[in-house]
Amino acid sequence: MSLFDDFLTQALAPSGITRQEFSELMIRLLDYGVLSREESQTEAQLYDRYLQCASLVEEYLAVIGVRIQHDRQFAFVRIFPPGAEVPGVADDDNSPFNTGFRVRPTQQEVAVILVLRAEYQKSLREGQVDEKGRAMLSLEGLAIAMNNLLKRNLPEGLVERKQLFRRLKQLRLIQYHLEDDLDSDESWISIQPSITSFVSDDVLQALGGESQAEPQQSDEENA
């Protein structure tokens, strides 16, 4: 057994967590980039395990420059790779979307994430979030917001739409019941509170400024 193994075993002893359990936690966290207690029974167990050894997880990841954001109120943990922007931490030289440890979001995904964040902020202002911090949004409402804010549309094909929403669900940004319902504008999705850790306030404000500037520019052109 190496010196590191000895150190890890001793450090884990007070928490009662085994090296295998710690390994499972780290693999899941690095693979998905996020843990949400409300997502599933498996993630609930891993999140509770994280609480038992949070300081050790932070020290372990700090060695490779990975930072952690932990939201105790809504029970989720998100990790950020070296150089990524972390909400609440000044880091203007980097993009806030370098948050995935598997595949970086596509332009289509980024566009939808931005709009979801704006709609979530709107729900917060209007007090339209539940006790777990979730905000409901219809696909029709999302499509309208996409057009108003970014002049873009949701994918028309069901396969592409399913793939898009499946990816956002993997990032723990939304929840929905049945994929087959995603072709209906009357379907609803739940925006998760972890969306606030994925898009910084500065980006959100910039998005709002651009959307307000376009109508003003159009009015000037028509004058």
What can you tell me about this protein's structure?
With 223 residues, this protein is mainly α. The strands form two sheets. The protein has a three-stranded antiparallel β-sheet with strand order 1-3-2. The protein has a three-stranded antiparallel β-sheet with strand order 4-6-5. It folds into two domains: 78 residues, no CATH class; 110 residues. The longest helix is centred in the last third of the chain and has 22 residues. The protein is elongated, with a radius of gyration of 20 Å. A hairpin with a 4-residue loop joins strand 2 and strand 3.
Short description:
InterPro entries: JetB. The chain is mainly alpha-helical and 223 residues long.
DSSP strand (E) fraction?
5-15%
- Tell me the helix content: 40-55%
Order of helices and strands: HHEHHEEHEHHEEH
Average of per-residue pLDDT values: 83
Query: Strand order, biggest sheet?
Result: 1-3-2
Question: How would you describe the shape?
Answer: elongated
Number of domains: 2
Unreliable spans: 91-100, 215-221
Tell me the span between the first and last alpha carbons. Answer: 77 Å
Structural class: mainly alpha
Instruction: Give a count of the beta strands, DSSP E runs of length 2 or more.
Output: 6
Quickly count the helices: 8
How many strands, what sense, and barrel or not for the largest sheet?
A: 3 strands, antiparallel
Radius of gyration: 20 Å
Protein name: DUF4194 domain-containing protein
InterPro entries: JetB
Pfam families: DUF4194 (PF13835)
Organism: Gilvimarinus xylanilyticus
